[in-house]
């Protein structure tokens, strides 16, 4: 095996191990809770004040989503709940088991106006700074770059925890793929996944089962908007056919219904987002409902999906004005499906072009129950784009921002997100703020 493939395999495993992990609840309010919990972990006295400053993308994505463990929405709620929990060892699963006592204490803090989350003027996609006051003591915790990347905790300006050799400039990079990885041709990434030992990626199947349980929860009744349940009723009534694309749409939407309504259910995330994980995984789960495939093949398809998701997110941004489920995770899923169905690498690359041509304009206006609508559409598009590509029907050169290779088109998507939509998040936040109760 040559050194290039070996290096790519190592980078792929870094991405899978660090960006594919369980999460309970929308990861933006979860990150707020995690920061507040980390700050509280070094203070023993009663809480007098909780203040959390967050980047615009975290702010936007957490405003209107349900918080697990408490029948409320809102950023302040997440901060209060995290501070009451007071320990951060569970990471993104911190809100998985909230006791009645913790819930009541959080409500008391909120009623006394002791928890406040505010918008911070920063260019960082992911930045959270939680400060807690208790008597004369003041603690602070900082999360940067990734939702669970805690880099420091201080008490009265004294370091209590400092992530080794970490700064805002290099946070979260030590265990992630090197920058050269994201210039690797996609065909070489697929080759790397194909060479991995099955035992190294078998945990991909855990994510599939986890997210299927979330989908089953969403199908059990009307949660959130109830998009998944509505699709199921339409299938039962004969208005929609029970097939691969509609099942992918139903499962993905249903899982999002459950998650966005605030259900305390774990899902396997991708690139720091639970909804990304649902979109990257559940269309492939739907494939399994209609076509035979070994566990090993399913695991490799899921690995391909997560890798392509991370590859695209590197260009468009971890949090972005564009809906990452629509443009990244769904594109990962379409690649996994093409690979499962025996498509060539060229057909896989063409499926990426189809997804960009189809989904590039979908904005992210924060996490909320309506995300289920977008996730359902993205999942169905993933299946359709794969099928078109398998029949060699695809968006060719000079088709809008699809201008050549799949890699070049992904880079164009990044330019659109970072340069062309630089003011979109601020505008979305302004609209959302103007309609807050």
Summarize the structure in short.
With 437 residues, this protein is α+β, with helices and mostly antiparallel strands. The chain has 17 helices and 8 strands. It has 2 domains: 22-162, 60s Ribosomal Protein L30, Chain: A; 179-434, 2-methylcitrate dehydratase PrpD (Orthogonal Bundle).
Description of the molecule:
The protein is globular and about 70 Å long. By secondary structure, the protein is an alpha+beta fold. The chain is 54% helix and 10% strand. It has helices spanning 3-19, 27-40, 56-62, 75-85, 100-111, 186-195, 198-201, 204-219, 227-236, 244-260, 274-290, 295-316, 324-340, 345-359, 371-390, 406-420, 424-434; strands at 22-24, 49-54, 115-119, 127-134, 137-144, 150-155, 158-162, 266-268. The protein has a six-stranded mixed sheet with strand order 3-2-4-5-6-7. It has two domains: 22-162, 60s Ribosomal Protein L30, Chain: A (2-Layer Sandwich); 179-434, 2-methylcitrate dehydratase PrpD, CATH 1.10.4100.10. Helix 11 runs parallel beside helix 13 (324-340). The longest helix is centred in the C-terminal third of the chain and has 22 residues, at 295-316. It contains 17 helices and eight strands.
């Amino acid at each position: 095996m040559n050194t290039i493939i070996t290096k790519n395999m190592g980078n792929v495993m870094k991405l899978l191990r660090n960006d594919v992990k369980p999460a309970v609840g929308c990861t933006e309010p979860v990150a707020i809770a995690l920061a507040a919990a980390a700050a509280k972990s070094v203070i023993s006295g009663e809480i007098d004040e909780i203040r959390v400053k967050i980047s615009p993308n975290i702010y936007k994505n957490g405003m209107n989503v349900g918080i697990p463990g408490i029948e409320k929405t809102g950023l302040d709620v997440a901060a209060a709940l995290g501070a009451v929990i007071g320990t951060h060892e569970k990471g993104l699963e911190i809100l998985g088991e909230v006791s009645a006592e913790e819930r009541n204490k959080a409500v008391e803090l909120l009623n006394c106006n002791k928890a406040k989350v505010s918008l911070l003027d920063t260019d960082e996609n992911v930045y959270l700074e939680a400060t807690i006051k208790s008597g004369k003591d003041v603690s602070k915790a900082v999360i940067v770059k990734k939702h669970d990347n805690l880099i420091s905790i201080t008490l009265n300006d004294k370091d209590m925890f400092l992530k080794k050799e970490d700064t805002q400039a290099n946070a979260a990079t030590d265990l992630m793929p090197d920058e050269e990885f994201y210039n690797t041709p996609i065909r070489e990434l697929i080759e790397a996944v194909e060479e991995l030992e099955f035992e190294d990626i078998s945990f991909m199947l855990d994510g599939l089962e986890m997210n299927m349980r979330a989908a089953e929860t969403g199908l059990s009744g009307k949660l959130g908007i109830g998009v998944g349940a509505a699709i199921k009723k339409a299938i039962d009534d004969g208005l929609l056919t029970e097939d691969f694309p509609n099942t992918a749409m139903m499962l993905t939407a249903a899982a999002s219904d459950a998650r966005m309504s605030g259900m305390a259910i774990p899902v396997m995330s991708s690139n720091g987002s639970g909804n990304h994980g649902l979109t990257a995984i559940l269309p492939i789960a739907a494939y399994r409902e209609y076509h035979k495939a070994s566990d090993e093949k399913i695991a490799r398809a899921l690995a391909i999906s997560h890798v392509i998701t991370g590859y695209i997110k590197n260009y468009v941004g971890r949090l972005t004005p564009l809906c990452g489920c629509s443009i990244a995770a769904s594109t990962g899923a379409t690649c996994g499906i093409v690979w499962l169905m025996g498509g060539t690498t060229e057909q896989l690359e063409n499926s990426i072009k189809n997804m960009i041509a189809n989904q590039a304009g979908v904005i992210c206006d924060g996490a909320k129950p309506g995300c289920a609508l977008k996730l359902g559409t993205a999942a169905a598009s993933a299946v359709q784009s794969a099928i078109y590509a398998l029949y060699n029907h695809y968006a060719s050169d000079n088709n809008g921002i699809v201008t050549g290779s799949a890699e070049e088109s992904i880079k164009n998507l990044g330019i659109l997100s970072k340069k062309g939509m630089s003011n979109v998040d601020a505008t979305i936040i302004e609209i959302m703020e103007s309609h807050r109760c």
